[in-house]
Design brief:
By secondary structure, the chain is α+β, with helices and mostly antiparallel strands. The chain has helices at 28-33, 40-45, 97-108, 116-126, 131-151, 158-188, 199-262, 270-273, 277-298, and strands spanning 2-7, 10-14, 22-26, 53-57, 60-69, 72-84, 87-92. Among the domains are: 1-127, CorA soluble domain-like (Beta Polymerase, domain 2); 237-298, Methane Monooxygenase Hydroxylase, Chain G, domain 1. It is built from nine helices and seven strands; from the N terminus they run E-E-E-H-H-E-E-E-E-H-H-H-H-H-H-H. It has a seven-stranded mixed β-sheet with strand order 2-1-3-7-6-5-4. A hairpin with a 2-residue loop joins strand 6 and strand 7.
């Protein structure tokens, strides 16, 4: 367990645990060994996978988040947060980059009026710090996919690309929805943990996450439109193939009639004994094919 005390607007490492104006970082097992007066089941939940949530208890708020780790994009780490009037406790089974970055920032640089709430806000703020750039990259990826659909819809990797982008969008949608839900509960301040006036910072964070979430929803609509365009291109390609088969069948249908007629082999068919019977029938077949092709050309079917 690592604990940091707020002194002179900077965080200083301390051996004292769970003291006023301290921020502690620990694992669920480390927290179980301490005399930390919180609901026991909340500690267990920090090590189990599940949905994000916010719960208010007597004297503290408890938050569970699934945080994106910077080094493992599209993978999350389970993190619990205990918010008390003068104490903040982060609980994570494995080291979390988002927590470590905030601790590093405030242990190496002084901040104006540093307190528990400003550290908590900085932590939440870091969770979406570079997400606007990520969304722009996703938008560019969808745009490039749209161009590929128009140019070469028969690309074998097309379905894989669509599926990959949709998974990313669904991942971010769930991620922002959990942040939005938790941030709104913090902003509501039902437990009166936040000092007067500090809720406005989380209102700013809530608005930002809401904008990011709406951007993801817009991109989801965009990728669905691209998917519909791709399906239309595939349908057009299939229709072209079916039209070609239909033309071939229509050309050979009169020839089948001709073959069936002369395949009857009646005894008194004059053409069977005629010297020019075969060339004549062959010429007739060619003529039928040419006439059919001219008709299809005139009707702009070919």
């Amino acid at each position: 367990m690592k604990c940091y005390k707020i002194e002179n607007n900077i965080m200083v490492k301390t051996e004292e645990t769970f003291q006023p104006n301290t921020v502690c970082v620990c694992s669920p097992k480390e927290l179980e060994k301490e005399d930390f007066k919180v609901a026991v089941h909340t500690i267990d939940e920090c090590s189990r996978s599940g949905f994000a949530k916010f719960e208010a208890y007597d004297g503290y708020d408890f938050i569970l988040l699934n945080i994106i780790d910077n080094n493992e994009q599209y993978l999350t780490k389970r993190t619990g947060i205990y918010i008390m009037p003068q104490m903040l406790v982060f609980v994570s089974e494995e080291p979390c980059n988002a927590i470590n970055d905030v601790i590093f920032a405030f242990t190496n640089n002084k901040a104006s009026k540093l307190n528990i709430i400003s550290i908590l806000y900085a932590f939440f703020n870091s969770l979406t710090m570079s997400d606007s750039e990520k969304i722009e990259k996703l938008e560019e990826e969808i745009f490039n996919l749209e161009q590929l659909v128009m140019d070469d819809y028969s690309n074998k990797d097309m379905i894989k690309k669509f599926t990959g982008i949709r998974k990313k969008l669904m991942f971010y949608k769930k991620y922002y929805e959990q942040l939005l839900d938790v941030a709104k509960n913090i902003e509501a301040n039902a437990n009166n943990i936040l000092p007067m006036g500090s809720a406005r910072y989380f209102k700013m964070f809530t608005d930002r996450v809401d904008r990011l979430n709406r951007s993801i929803l817009n991109l989801r609509d965009y990728i669905n439109q691209v998917g519909e365009a791709y399906q239309s291109q595939v349908d057009i390609g299939i229709n072209k193939i079916m039209k070609l088969f239909t033309v071939i069948a229509a050309v050979f249908l009169p020839l089948n009639l001709l073959v069936g007629w002369y395949g009857m082999n009646f005894k008194y068919m004059p053409e069977l004994q005629w010297e020019y019977g075969y060339p004549c029938v062959s010429g007739l077949a060619i003529l039928i094919v040419l006439i059919c092709i001219l008709i299809f050309k005139k009707k702009k079917i070919l």
